[in-house]
Amino acid sequence: MKSIPPSLGRAALRALLKERSPLGPLKVMAKHVGRFFQIPLPGFRPYVVFGPEANRKVLVTERGKLLWRNTDPVTDLLRRGVLIVDGEEHDRYRALMEPPLHPSQLPAYTDMMIRQTERVASTWQDGQIVDMLVESRKIALLIIMQALFSKDVWDDLPRIWDPILKAIAYISPGAWILWRNIPRPGYKKHLQTLDDYLYQIIASRRANVERSTLDVQPDLLQHLLDAGLTDDLIRDQMLTMLIAGHDTSTALLAWTFALLGEHPEVFSTLTAEVIAREKSPLLDQVIKESLRLYPPIHIGNRRVAEEIHFDEGSVPAGERLFYSIYLTHRDPEIWENPDSFCPERFAHGRKTPPMSYVPFGGGPRACIGAAFGQAEARVVLAHLLRNYQFQFTNHPIHPHMGATLEPRPGVMMRVKRRQVHR
Ligand code: HEM
To answer: For residue 296, how far is its CA from the centre of ligand 1 (angstroms)?
Structure first.
C-alpha cells in the first residue's frame, strides 16, 4: 500500500467540503492511492478495496475469510437478522425467505404495487411541489409491508414514520464510528415503538391460525412462523427486511427522479416511451444507470476473520474491510465518462465486465431482494410517469451517506395529474 502524503489529506478535505459527503475524499483516495487503501481516521481505520478482482475475492472466492457480523449499530439493531449472521444460521434464514422473493413470484405483486403507488400519488394536489424522497419512502413502505407481511400500513404511517426514520438514523454513519460507546439518547422510545409494532403483527398472525390456509401464497411472515422461529428471531428478520427492503428502494426511486430532473431530455424521451409501450427498454437502462451512479448500498462492510490478500496488499485478521460499490461504479478504468448519466451504456447487447457492476453485491450473499427491488422500481416509475407530470424545481442535490446513499436535501418536483394517457 502506498503511503499517504500530507497533500492528499488536504485534497481529501477539500473534496469533503466541496461534495458535502465522504464520497468526495473516497474518490480522492481512489484516484491517488489506488484500489486498496486504509482510511486514516483516529480510532477508525477500515481498509477499502474496489474493482472487479477485489469484489470477486470479497464476494465469492475468499468470502470464507470474512464475517458479516460486526461491532456496530447495524448489528445491535438487527441482532440475528439474515443480513447480520454468518454460516449455517444465515443459510437457514435465507432459505426460508427466498420463496416469496423468487422472480417467478414477482408478477403476483404488480397490481398491489400499482395500487400502493396510486394511493400515495392520489394525495397530491395539482401543481403541488412534493419531495420525491419522502413520497418514494411512503410507496416503498406500503409495498414492502404488504408484500412480505400482508400488512396494510396506510393508516399506521403517521405512527410508524418517525420510529422508522429513527431506526435508519440509528444505523447511519455518525459520531459512533469514532467513539463506539458514545451515548445515543433519543432512540430508545422510537425503537421500542417499532418493536412493539412488529411483535403485534406476529402475535395477531399467530392468533389467526386460519390465515395460512386462506391465502393462496404464504407470505414471508408465514414462512418464518411455519418454520417454528421464536418471536424474537422473527422480529429480527422482519426488521431486517423492512429496513433493507424499503430504504434501498426509496433511494433508488428518489435518485432516479433526481437524475431525470437533471436530464430533462432523457426524462421526456422516457416518459413518451413509457406511455407508448407496455415494456420500456429505456426505463430499464435508466434504472440501471441510476443504480450505477448512486448505488443505494454504496459500501459492503465486513470483519476480517483470517488474513486476506489483494494484489496491492493484505488485510490482517480482526480489521474492518469495506468493498466499495460506489468506487467500482465510478472507476474510469472500467467506465467511459464514469461520472456522466448515460443510460444507453446499458443498451441491449452491451456488456459490462463481470464484478464491475455490483449494485446488489454478488455471490451467495447477493441481495435477496434484487429482483423484487428492480421489478418494484419499474412498476412504480412506469405508473407515475404514465399518470403524472413531473417538473423538477432545479435545486442542487448532493449525496448524503445515511444507511443508504440519499439525495439531499430531497427531490422537489411540481406534480400534476395527466388528463389523457395511453
Ligand atoms: C433497489 C433496491 C436494493 C438495493 C440496491 C440493494 C442492495 C443490496 C446489497 C448491495 C446487498 C449486499 C451487501 C453486502 O454485500 O454487504 C444487499 C443485501 C441484502 N438485501 Fe438488498 N438491495 C435492494 C433491495 C432489497 C429488497 C427489496 C430487499 C427485501 C425484500 C432486500 C433485502 C436484502 C437482504 C436481506 C440482504 C442480505 C442478504 C444476505 O446477507 O444473505 N434488499 N442488498
So the answer is: 10
Cβ-contact 312, 320 below 8 angstroms: no
What residue has cell string 395460512? 212
Whether ligand 1 lies within 6 angstroms of the CB of 241 is answered as yes
Question: Is residue 109 within 6 Å of ligand 1 at its C-beta?
Answer: no
Q: Is 268 exposed, middle or buried (0-12, 13-18, 19+ CB in 10 A)?
A: exposed
For residues 326 and 251, give the distance between their C-alpha atoms in angstroms, rounded to a whole number. 14
Q: What type of residue is 25?
A: P
If DSSP codes are grouped into helix, strand and coil, which group holds residue 255?
helix
* Residue 57 belongs to some domain of the structure: yes
Which mutation among 256, 367, 374 tests ligand 1's pocket best, with the greatest number of atoms within 8 A of CB? Answer: 367
User: Helix or strand or coil: residue 121?
Assistant: helix
179 belongs to a structural domain: yes
pTM above 0.70, yes or no: yes
Position 264 scores a pLDDT of 98
142 in a structural domain: yes
Give, for 405, the enclosing helix (H) or strand (E).
Answer: strand 405-408
pLDDT digits (tens, 9 = 90+) for 371-414: 999 999 999 999 999 999 999 999 999 999 999 999 999 999 99
- 199-218: per-residue pLDDT in tens? 999 999 999 865 545 456 79
CATH number at residue 204: 1.10.630.10
Number of domains in the chain: 1
Query: What atom in ligand 1 is closest to the CA of residue 81?
Result: 35
* Inside any domain, residue 13: no
Q: In the chain, which stretches have pLDDT less than 70?
A: 1-4, 209-216, 420-422
365 lines ligand 1 (CB under 6 A): yes
Q: What separation in Å is there between the alpha carbon of 34 and the centre of ligand 1?
A: 27
Domain that holds residue 228: 34-417
The pLDDT of residue 1? 56
Cα(227) to ligand 1 centroid in Å equals 22
For helices 188-207 and 231-262, the axis angle rounded to 10 degrees is 120
> Rounded to an integer, what distance in angstroms lies between the CA atom of residue 359 and that of residue 377?
14
